[in-house]
Design a protein that fits this description.
With 243 residues, the chain is an alpha/beta fold. It is 44% helix and 14% strand. It has ten helices and eight strands. The strands form two sheets. Strands 5-4-1-6-7-8 form a six-stranded parallel sheet, sandwiched between helices. Strands 2-3 form a two-stranded antiparallel sheet. The protein is globular, with a radius of gyration of 18 Å. Pfam families: Hydrolase.
């Protein structure tokens, strides 16, 4: 008996930094400017591959090697100010990403029989105004229905409520959704909400780290990602938590 046909994803939600956009240079620049204001030496860009992904507070906690709340409050404020003063000119889409997004938006990458294109969204732990500004600059023609970043209105990934809030705004079930990201934070966020997780090896952590963490498929190229998205929802049912 042939395996049951997979249903297409109702929504494809992307992380931004390290997934769609190569922004590690700008992330390091903003964090190092905050460190300089605090009298600390800069860290090499390579350090930020391990520190980025969990939001500004975790980023600066790692950069300063501290959990002191007062110091972190100041460090985060300095990082946000540095980001606001930057034009983020070093942040660019990864090769192949614009074409992938255009195909998804048109339904041309759905594979198989014609189907309505999935709802597209971004869910980032970067401060929301910067997420919206960077998305508008780099992907002005992509019809993202939700562009969500760090805000007091929702928790950060990997909390299930982060992805759950975006799914509610899109009007889709997490079980019909795929979250594409580049860190263990994204993989855990998808698992917590009952969505499909896909990790991209070209991002901050690399494929080996994502595979070691388990919890979803890991793709090495944009073409592999396109194939996974075309394949649709995996046949093994996922348990969806209330969010």
């Amino acid at each position: 008996m042939a395996p049951p046909a997979r249903r297409p994803f109702a929504a494809v939600i992307f992380d931004l930094d390290g997934t769609l956009v190569d922004s590690i240079g700008d992330i390091a620049d903003g964090a190092n400017k905050a460190l300089a204001e605090l009298g600390h030496p800069p860290r090499p860009v390579s350090d930020y591959h391990k520190l980025a992904g969990g939001g500004n507070r975790l980023l600066m906690s790692g950069a300063l090697d501290t959990t002191d709340d007062a110091l972190l409050d100041k460090a985060v404020a300095l990082k946000v100010a540095a980001d606001a003063a930057s034009d983020h000119a070093a942040s660019v889409p990864f090769p192949g990403i614009p074409t992938l997004l255009d195909g998804l938006a048109s339904g041309g990458d759905s594979g198989g029989a014609p189907a309505p294109p999935p709802a597209l969204a971004i869910l980032s732990n970067k401060t929301e105004p910067f997420v919206k500004a960077l998305t508008a600059r780099l992907f002005p023609a992509v019809p993202f229905r939700v562009v969500a970043g760090a805000t007091e209105r929702r928790p950060l990934k990997p909390d299930a409520g982060a992805l759950g809030a975006v799914c509610r705004e899109l009007g889709v079930a997490p079980s019909d959704t795929v979250l594409v990201g580049d860190t263990e934070v994204d993989m855990a966020a998808a698992a917590a909400a009952g969505a499909t997780a896909v990790g991209v090896a070209w991002g901050f952590r690399g494929g080996d780290a994502l595979r070691a963490g388990g919890g979803g498929a890991v793709v090495e190229t944009v073409e592999e990602l396109r194939a996974v998205l075309q394949a649709g929802v995996p046949p093994v049912a996922k348990e969806t938590v209330a969010v």
